[in-house]
């Protein structure tokens, strides 16, 4: 190999691969001085033998080959070629970061290996040269700092400093007039030294809003007070744009010690400040997103547990109402229990919406049609003193959504807007097609670039401050008086939007109204027609055998009592193992498996698979307090699966079971 390294260390734990690599190395005229089959040995041999080149396998038994490379470069810098069976960009990037000069996919041919070795050696030499230049640069910078300090102390070097410094250099006399400025400042401002020499620094370069502060600092120092060593203030360029400058100021004295002027050196930190502000903004957004996700998980868990508690409350209250005469004194008590439980059910429904665990029936829809059909109802809800204006894009793209949930979003936002306009005002609902590009998505966690339908709801109300806006989507946060709201309206909106794969942002200032902007991803396909819901007929008495599996005792007992009271034969199981045993032992047919989804030991989906091996014709109806990933994906229920949401009603359970046993469901 021309100018190639001659002493090679091979690190490879596969003997056959090692032999093959060694043959190729010898073809290239190199000498293999040692072999290593693990990272620890490779590091020791490198330190002992100082090879010219190392051929390093990634998959070593003790240490990742890339990590070995990193340690070698830290202790004994050596050209390294990584050998890998995988052509992966992430591995190539890691290898480069660790100091490897080249990356070759095994088994390499002689030309491939020769080229890789040449590249590795060249990069290694470049790195050595770069390190030397860095050391030289560091030495030069140290010397420059020493020189600048000396220039600040001695007037004789002021001219040299102004002419050669690669930083802003400005000299002012005791009246604040410009004596000298360097080219660096000329480039920033667009003024030449000839244009401004002798003019007032304050009147020429400082914006009016900061002029008095800097002038007072300057003349206070000239009068004998201290001169602040570091000052940050904006200056104006010739086009009127502001640049934020970080100044370091020094008093200039003559040989007798008399003050003759001020030397100011500075750096344009405009971009640095913008980057810091952007980092702080992104950090705040990420923190908010993480907080909302944590609250959502907690809310979903609470709602699930509440639904298990509410199921027997509603069910037993309904069963009591069926048995009682309306004239019975207990009848009204049970009605109150049922109504209170229904209100609690609605509350848990809002928690499920916020936590993105509710049931959705998604289809291709058009936002304009939903808004137009819902506008009259909105007007009745919010009252005549609020004017509703709609500005709808006639070419709006379709989205995939659940129309009732989208109506819920419109209603909650409109009610919030009405409450923010106690004296009346204007509510504007707008739609438009928007494209969110990569730069927009980069600054907003959770946003994917693409085509979106935008829904904007704005009002002319009292608006909100920053602290309120930061908490506006948190459940149970409300600015209303006690008893006037649950604090779940906007939390529900947030959850519905997120479950639709969209994003929501709020913009508001006190006294200037509020605007909510919702972005929902474009969907392909035609708008699906609305389903016509027919009146449910009366059902005959039930007939068939049902295996009920539920680990929550009160829910299980309720379901069994309801089904038995409607004529069904019921097999009751409190766990998946019990259900399997009973299904195997039962001699007669089992028409339906009614099972909870999330249970200890075995979930409902797996339980059905196991029983179906014994009873292939068995039908299954799942029930749960929330939509779990076992049966749903991203909150959208699989169309092939029948599901009953807790808390269920007596009629809801009986009708669903009847339809399934009669074969009336899909």
What is the structure about, briefly put?
This protein is α/β, with parallel strands linked by helices and 666 residues long. The chain is built from 21 helices and 24 strands. Helix 1 links the parallel strand 1 and strand 2.
Structural account:
With 666 residues, the chain is of the alpha/beta class. The chain folds into 5 domains: 7-131, Rossmann fold (3-Layer(aba) Sandwich), CATH 3.40.50.2300; 156-268, 2-Layer Sandwich (Beta-Lactamase); 280-355; 363-521, Histidine kinase-like ATPase, C-terminal domain (Heat Shock Protein 90), CATH 3.30.565.10; 545-661, Response regulator (Rossmann fold), CATH 3.40.50. It is 46% helix and 21% strand. The protein has 21 helices and 24 strands. A 5-stranded parallel β-sheet has the order 2-1-3-4-5, sandwiched between helices. β20, α20 (604-614) and β21 form a beta-alpha-beta unit. α3 packs parallel to α4. The longest helix has 54 residues, at 270-323.
List the defining traits of the structure above.
single chain; 666 residues; alpha/beta; Rossmann fold; Beta-Lactamase; 5 domains; five-stranded parallel sheet; five-stranded antiparallel sheet; 21 helices; 24 strands; 21% strand
